Amino acid sequence: MHLTHSTDLALRALMLLGARDERRSAADLAARLRVPPQHMAKIVQRLRRHGLVETARGRGGGVVLAACAPGTSVGEIVRVLEGPGEVVDCDHPPCPLRGGCRLRGALRAAQEAFLASLDQVLLRDLVSDPPEPILLSLASPAPAGAPSEPEEGT
Question: Which NCBIfam families does this chain map to (predicted)?
Answer without folding.
Answer: rrf2_super
